């Protein structure tokens, strides 16, 4: 493979990592509080607001059921408003964030719901406020689950990021489509797939390792 | 002091499930510094009752006064401040798996906003108090059940509460560990003067630890008083059934299967004697033998001490047919000892 092509792969990998990491960061920033709220706002729970919970649930489901490629195109005006442009890797972060936020929120909700309700009662019994319960009990206790959820979100984002080539987002997926498919360069296609596989393996292993490190539920040495 | 004033607690009907009257007409006081057992079958309302004390539940009607304050009327920050003077321990310990023993004990202090340096000193003190100073850096997954409950007790005592609530705290522990935990609670009550309210379905826990007992059935207090009084003269069938668990007044199987109701000329009459009160059973068999000249045989016996009083039952075999049995029963009733004829065995 020529050095030009290798440079293209390196550049595309950089674009993918940039889009995915910023989108994961923003998606977590929005998704974590939404997920915590979804997990604690049903009737009789810590921040009981069943109506808001139900409404938020509908919004989350609606966003999650929109195919990503349609979402990317549909929100182009919004993307232009936020990023100043609708083309390029920076612009692609907007739809990636919007797609990953509800996904992360649902994963966070599931992880938080795994925490034993008895611990919430215990913390309440010694006078913890709802926010103290969230930060001192729920999030630390759910941390292994939260790390695994985040790992899953990053892996999905890598997949999503392949689609933003449709709006000039760049990245590995875009490279694979343009060179590998449209220019019929199978070795390019193969190279892109190999890099993606390696990235996913890396992310998953790192996530698993961290989740195991913070998991004190099982004895480990 | 904890005082319940005409409490009722109703859980309203929800999603097709009918409403439940969890507690009705609860009106009694728990004296300061006492150890009070609340005993009842599951569903009797014990958990609801104990959760009224620390404001985790609100009564439907009535008031709960803790240390002169109506805790049922408090909410928000006021309630959270009041909850710091009421500690609670749980059947399943409810420790944070992500924190070490020391950090678990520190949690209520962090929540109360103690400075870090003071927390460190207090935690060391508490670990020593509950006898696990060497487990400072251990995670709950590395501790035994008894050690976990010791951490739970230390955590409950961290903010120096005046009341300690125990929600079936020994029900998940083996008998030996239960004994050690109950001893620890007794020490804490003696040394710190903390009022202890323990809810349990186990008579043995009340017997070992409590001085006062409240018997709960279907959301109502059916009996209450000193442990010794209640269990030497149980009135309510529920109390009697709890007592039966301790004194074991069921007949040995081999004996029960041979028991007949018709008097037999040869063989023994089977008489059960209830033992209640100081020294009641001590000389009974000897006196029957001496004063009535009967060769009394002891078929089964269980005598226990509850609050300094003997409580138990003896099953006696009296030879000599119906007349001897009648004489023995007359002798016992003359001495105000309650006894009944169960039948005869060959």
Automatic annotation (TrEMBL), chain A:
Keyword Chaperone (UniProt): no
InterPro entries: AA_ABC_Transporter_Permease (IPR051322), MetI-like (IPR000515), MetI-like_sf (IPR035906)
Subcellular location: Cell membrane
CDD domains listed in its UniProt record: TM_PBP2
UniProtKB keywords: Cell membrane, Membrane, Transmembrane, Transmembrane helix, Transport
GO biological process: D-methionine transmembrane transport
Bilayer-crossing regions: 17-39, 51-76, 146-168, 188-211
Pfam family, one: BPD_transp_1
Membrane listed as a keyword: yes
Membrane protein topology class: Multi-pass membrane protein
GO CC terms in record: plasma membrane
Residues of the ABC transmembrane type-1 domain: 13-205
Signal sequence residues: none
Family assignment from sequence similarity: Belongs to the binding-protein-dependent transport system permease family. CysTW subfamily.
Annotated protein name in UniProt: DL-methionine transporter permease subunit
Biological source species: Bradyrhizobium centrolobii
């Amino acid at each position: 493979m020529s050095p030009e092509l290798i440079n293209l792969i390196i550049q595309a990998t950089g674009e993918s990592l940039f889009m995915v990491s910023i989108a994961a960061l923003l998606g977590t920033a929005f998704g974590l509080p939404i997920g915590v709220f979804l997990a604690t706002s049903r009737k009789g729970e810590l921040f009981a607001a069943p109506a808001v919970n139900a409404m938020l649930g509908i919004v989350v489901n609606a966003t999650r059921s929109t195919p990503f490629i349609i979402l990317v195109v549909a929100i182009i005006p919004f993307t232009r408003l936020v990023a100043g442009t609708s083309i390029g890797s920076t612009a692609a972060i907007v739809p990636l964030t919007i797609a990953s936020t509800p996904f992360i929120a649902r994963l966070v909700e599931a992880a938080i719901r795994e925490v034993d309700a008895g611990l919430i009662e215990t913390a309440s019994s010694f006078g913890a406020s709802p926010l103290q319960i969230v930060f001192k009990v729920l999030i630390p206790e759910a941390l292994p689950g939260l790390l695994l959820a985040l790992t899953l979100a990053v892996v999905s984002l890598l997949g999503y990021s392949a689609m933003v080539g449709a709006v000039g987002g760049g990245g590995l997926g875009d490279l694979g489509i343009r060179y590998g498919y449209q220019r019929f360069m199978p070795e390019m296609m193969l190279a892109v797939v190999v890099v993606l596989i390696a990235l996913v393996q890396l992310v998953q292993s790192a996530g698993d390792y961290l989740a195991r490190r913070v998991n004190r539920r099982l004895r480990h040495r | 002091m904890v005082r319940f004033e005409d409490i009722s607690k109703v859980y309203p009907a929800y999603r097709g499930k009918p409403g439940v009257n969890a507690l009705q007409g609860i009106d009694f006081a728990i004296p300061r510094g006492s150890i009070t057992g609340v005993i009842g079958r599951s569903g009797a309302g014990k958990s609801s009752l104990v959760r009224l004390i620390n404001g985790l539940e609100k009564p439907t009607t009535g008031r709960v006064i803790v240390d002169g304050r109506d805790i049922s009327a408090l909410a928000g920050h006021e309630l959270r401040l009041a909850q710091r003077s009421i500690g609670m321990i749980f059947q399943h310990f409810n420790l944070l798996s992500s924190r070490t023993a020391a950090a678990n004990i520190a949690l209520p202090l962090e929540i109360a906003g103690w400075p870090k340096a003071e927390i460190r000193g207090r935690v060391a003190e508490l670990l020593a108090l509950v006898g696990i100073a060497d487990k400072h850096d251990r995670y709950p997954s590395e501790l035994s059940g008894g050690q976990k409950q010791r951490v739970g007790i230390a955590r409950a005592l961290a903010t120096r509460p005046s009341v300690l609530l125990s929600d079936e705290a020994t029900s998940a522990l083996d008998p030996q560990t239960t004994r050690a935990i109950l001893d620890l609670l007794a020490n804490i009550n003696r040394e710190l003067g903390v009022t202890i309210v323990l809810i349990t379905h186990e008579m043995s826990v009340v017997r070992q630890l409590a001085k006062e007992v409240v018997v709960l059935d279907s959301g109502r207090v059916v009996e209450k008083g000193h442990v010794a009084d209640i269990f030497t003269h149980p009135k309510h069938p529920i109390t009697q059934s709890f007592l039966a668990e301790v004194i074991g007044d069921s007949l040995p199987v081999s004996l029960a299967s041979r028991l007949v109701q018709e008097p037999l000329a040869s063989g023994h009459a089977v008489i059960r004697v209830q033992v209640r009160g100081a020294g009641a059973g001590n000389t009974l068999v000897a006196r029957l033998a001496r004063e009535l000249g009967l060769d009394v045989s002891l078929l089964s016996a269980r005598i226990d001490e509850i609050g300094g009083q003997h409580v138990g039952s003896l099953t006696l075999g009296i030879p000599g047919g119906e007349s001897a049995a009648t004489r023995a029963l007359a002798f016992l009733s003359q001495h105000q000892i309650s006894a009944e004829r169960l039948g005869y065995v060959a």
